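For the sake of transparency, this paper describes our internal protein records without simplification. The record that follows is passed on verbatim for readers who wish to inspect the format:
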Amino acid sequence: MAVLSDQLLIATLLIYLAAMVGYAVEHALRRPRAVVNAVRRVPAMAAAVAAPAADLPAPRTDGDNELPPAASVGRLRLAGWFAVAATALGAVTHTACLLTRGLAAGRVPWGNMYEFVLAVTLVGVLAWLGLLTRRPAVRPVGLYVTLATVTLLGLAGMRLHTPAGPLVPALNSYWLKIHVSAAATASGVFLLGFIAATAYLIRLRHDRAAEAGRAPGFVSSLGRYLPAVETLERVTFQMHVLAFPIWTFAVVAGAIWAEAAWGRYWGWDPKETWAFISWVAYAGYLHARATPSVKRPVVAWLAVLGWVTMMFNLFAVNLVIAGLHSYAGTN
């Protein structure tokens, strides 16, 4: 079973890579639309020079309803369909990889960093597929979802992998099923929220460059293919509203487990401290989001900051900083 799990991880990576290529092809097929639409507007612009300003259509910057040339519509739909189908297939093999890992180890499959990253990315992909069923317009973000997933899974497979085996005594508790599963679920949804926040900032930068008449840079130009800033900002908020209570529960459950294992609820261990820092960062995001005087870009940057603290807690605290949670690393 352990060998099968490792083979399924490789298959999952290849399938997600294929999905990423599909999303990239979809982006590429959308590229000519701005040029073609501009060419089509030339005669209309000449006729509209003398028209009253009130009769002119309002310019669009969101890009949600702009279409590529008619000849590319079929290929665009095919690329989009392939990307989503490959993502769904990858989620199936991803799930099988995690399940066979658990069967090989004879326990729940989130007892170390390698397994935790597998679980977090699976939750992120499932959350993405669920979001797609409700908001098909966000599909262009799939390129970044698969990119993040492939990056984390590749890192897990190459640097974090450990042979399947029993838990260390410190983790042999029913609280592992409760605390770590909640942390993995929240982290997966936070991952999707981070991607949406980053996409929002890229799209906003592109729109501001367009409004100022400046040529966008490479990063800003990527925003041309993303959904409207309003859509991305709303998705960012929804993901964080969903994940924050789960993360709060995970932190509280961890404190209860600490009391059962070490005789105290809180001891400012590095892992505990950074879990609390992440909680404060995300609480700050939600508070800023509910405060009208705080500008939306600042709010989005707080979401990015929250994910940075999560990654520091996962990698730096486990691999570099010594503490009571050091056994959760790669050995």
Remarks:
- Residues 167-331 form one domain.
